[in-house]
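Fold this: Cytochrome P450
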Amino acid sequence: MVPPSRSLEDFTDLVSLAEVNQRDDPQTYARLRGRWGEVAPVELVPGIPVWLVMGYQEIIQVSRDERLFSRDSRHWRYLGKLQGSGSPLALMMTPQEHSHFADGEKHRRLRAPLDDGLEGLDEHRTSRATQAICLGLIAKFADRREADLVTEYAALVPMLAVASWFGIGTDDAGRLMEAMASLFVPGQDPRPGMEIMQQILSGLILAHQEDPVDDLTTALLRHPNYHDASEVTQAIVQLLAAGQEATVAWIAQTLRLILADSHLGGRLRGGRLGVEEALDEVLWRRPPAANIANRYALADCEIAGTRIRKGDALAVSYAAANTDPRVHGDDPWLEIGNRAHLAWGAGPHVCPAQRPSRTIVRIAVETVLTRLHDLRLAVPAEEISTAPSISTVCPAGLPVRFTGFS
């Protein structure tokens, strides 16, 4: 257990958050719990420590209490050091003018248009568009009878699908995806990527102002909560960025577990488990957004016996919470249909796009399983590595073979 009087600066030789994700092993959290309790010191990047909150109830406490824990990283005493480190994470954690970084009344004002707009999405139209995207991607590799289901499929479906909500075409969606990816390449100047994003989104906003159509861009432009087009642009960036990495990971992790885990794959093929239930099992066992550093202490406080100082950053570990022995049993059958996991977050910042994201992932997984015949891994399961990330757990690649398609 962490002595209550010790601060983050007192610890050395800490495991990095990226290493925790890379291991993708529930036992990693068990070992951290055994050493530190429900709150463990870890490194975000070398020389920049954060608290990793692992307990289910403790994460709910942190996520719900806006009086003590802010989403605005300007309250973090290490923000300046991170910005000067050259780490690509600096751009990700520098506050922007959208609801992700806001608290209280400002958050509620900026969040309401997202909730209203996403609630108004036509589910049938979303399903048809996603199905067409999935089939179009499969058509590009179907004749080869082999593919990488991460780089050629899972990494592409979410951006193309979410872009369609806003009326963004396939070509511009591809350019946006490349531009966003370029922002987080170590040593690469992010300005060209930001200019491409600004060009595409400015054109999108202008076109919708001149000729409104029935889509999410128009819904956001018409919402009274937004003061100007800049706030609409920020909201679009937020949805495109927030949904991409985690949704890619959810698709890829589900396909990996179905193909590599005889327990899950056997139950699915045997009809004892549906795709919807399989998606929930993945959210319990391997939540895509495993560890998210996005809370900052507004005052000295205590969590599970650990003293937190004002200005400390906290990373909430949804992966650890879902294995918390106080809430998670040993019998996997008891979890079927149980959606009490924290994969979507908790509190005011709970994910606003749960329903459409689930639709995208379900269709992406079902399309692969039903259209590719005799689908199997092309390499031993133990050779599948995890892509480097401080937040998501996603296979770096998923090479497969199949005998035909329909």
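The CA atoms of residues 127 and 359 lie 7 Å apart. The chain has one domain: 8-405.
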